[in-house]
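Table S2 (continued). Query chain:
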Amino acid sequence: MAKINGQSEVTIAVGLREFPMEVVRFTAYLFMDRADPLIALEGKRRARVTLRLRAAVAGKRLALEKAAFLKELEAQRFQWDVLRKNRSIQEFIVRQALQQPPAAAPAPESGNSDLELSQEEERELDRLIAEVEETLAKEAKGRAGKKKDPLGIRKTWEEAHGRA
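Corresponding output:
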């Protein structure tokens, strides 16, 4: 741990046998909101992660950042292991989804039998439509008499200006 040019930085040595480079990179990426990470390889089996913190901190805070990085590194390795172990299952599910033909809609048995209404249903529908139209006409008549619009606020553009 060192302090350089007013910026604090913490260096973490990571074993690449324990933590694959992909996991180290992703964990460093997660810390980009508060630090500038730098990953340097030290041979084939070790990497050095340097987090240059954006806020000047010292001592205890640097130790907390290092602990947070190591904890997140463990969590990311766990997620990476789960993903790696389940990759064949994920590929199978996607393959099945892509190979499955879309379900066809069932064909009607006799022409438009579902769309035809009986005479009784037609009469009921006509009665309901007439009832709704009557209710709408009453409401429009009641609104016209009760509420005045002296400023013409409720008029449409066409009604107010006579243009289409």
